[in-house]
Write a structure and sequence with these properties.
Elements lengths: L20 E8 L13 E8 L13 E5 L19 H10 L7 E5 L12 E2 L3 E2 H16 L9 E6 L1 H12 L6 E5 L5 H4 L1 H14 L4 H10 L5 H17 L22 H8 L3 H7 L1 H5 L3 E7 L6 H15 L4 E5 L10 H12 L2
Parallel strand pairs: 3-4, 3-7, 7-8, 8-9, 9-10
Antiparallel strand pairs: 1-2, 2-4, 5-6
Helix pairs in contact: 5-7, 9-11
């Protein structure tokens, strides 16, 4: 009996060889330089090319930009759940089977030390909207065989990435002409407001009712305990995006009193201005111009983002913006299998 070394890729259920190619690049951003949090301006960027698509491909292709949820960083796309392919393996199998027209997929990293950026510009986080729309898109269009037009470019994401997928095309319809949102943050009174009381309780019971104490103890902790650290951390990160403290770069104005959970109406109003449901009417022309709007969410989503998707869809109907909404049996997590189908919907709509 003996063990022998073999050449090549080990194969499923470990590393499945790709039929296409995943280019793992490193870029440096001017927009993110000197950001208030001191987060890196040097970022990873992944570009997936379907089988047979080289850099000198003669036909310009549609592109789909894929963004992540809160606390997401780009290498998580390569992580594996039990008995399942990774995200990259899923889309590769779809293109290899010719189940989707050829397109370039761009995986964008917008990690921050506050957990995320919500893909908007914030005085407390940095210029992540500009980074995505003005830098990453231009970089990819210069180096890859893309159809460099908003009508052949889409944005897709889940959770906070789904929020970005709804909001960025409203703010920058000159850049993106289609979107897919999986359980995106929307209808803030359903997905955020009920959490304020829970965060206030956690701060009271474990952190002297103080965010200063929270961040001190978090920095000293030997691991991130989600049940204790997650909700306060997450809510502060959202506040940095929606209600930055202009007097203190990197800090936020809170929409509730951390000692009681009592709502601060003025700061909460700032949050509501960022709610996709409330933004839809203001950006009706941009939404009507989309070549495809695809929405979905699990019916048992723990953050009630299925209701947010329904509310956003209702607003789309009111303004006459074509869309589809699919509610499925599922929760907030474990829905990566939904991504390839949405990407196929977008690519099909983006065909010249």
């Amino acid at each position: 009996m003996s063990l022998r070394e073999l050449e090549g890729v080990v194969g499923a259920p470990w590393a499945r060889p790709l039929a296409g190619a995943l280019d793992q690049l490193v870029v440096e951003s001017d927009a993110l330089a000197d950001n208030p949090l001191g987060d890196p301006a040097r970022r990873p960027l992944y570009v997936y090319r379907p089988p047979g698509i080289e850099l000198d491909h003669p036909k310009p292709l549609p592109s789909v930009y894929i963004i992540q949820g809160f606390t997401g960083q780009i290498d998580m796309w390569l992580s594996r759940s039990p008995f399942e392919p990774t995200m990259v393996e899923r889309v590769d199998a779809m293109f290899a089977a010719r189940a989707c027209p050829d397109a370039l997929l761009v995986f964008v990293d917008a990690w921050t030390s506050r957990g995320g950026s919500q893909f908007i510009n914030s005085a407390s986080i940095g210029r992540y909207l500009d980074y995505l729309c003005d830098e990453v898109v231009a970089f990819v269009d210069e180096r890859y065989p893309t159809a460099a037009s908003r009508d052949q470019r889409a944005l897709a994401g889940k959770s906070s990435g789904g929020y970005g997928a709804m909001v960025v095309p409203m703010l920058r319809s000159d850049v993106f002409g289609a979107l897919a949102s999986h359980a995106g943050d929307a209808l803030f009174e359903c997905c955020y407001l009920p959490e304020f009381r829970n965060v206030a309780r956690t701060l009271r019971d474990h952190f002297d009712g103080s965010y200063e104490v929270f961040f001190e103890k978090l920095a000293a902790a030997d691991h991130f305990e989600y049940a204790r650290h997650g909700p306060p951390f997450e809510m502060y990160g959202y506040a940095c995006a929606y209600s930055p403290d202009l007097a203190q770069p990197g800090a936020a104005l809170l929409p509730f009193d951390p000692s009681t959970g009592r709502l601060d109406d003025d700061v909460w109003a700032l949050w509501l201005e960022h709610d996709p449901v409330r933004m839809a009417h203001r950006y009706a022309d941009a939404l009507r111009s989309m070549r495809r709007i695809y929405l979905d969410a699990g019916k048992s989503d723990e953050y009630f983002l299925d209701l947010g998707a329904q509310a956003f869809a209702q607003e789309l109907s009111k303004i006459g913006a074509a869309h589809t909404l699919e509610l499925f049996e599922g929760k907030h997590g474990g829905i990566t299998y939904r991504y390839p189908g949405a990407i196929r919907e977008l690519v099909t709509a983006l065909q010249v």
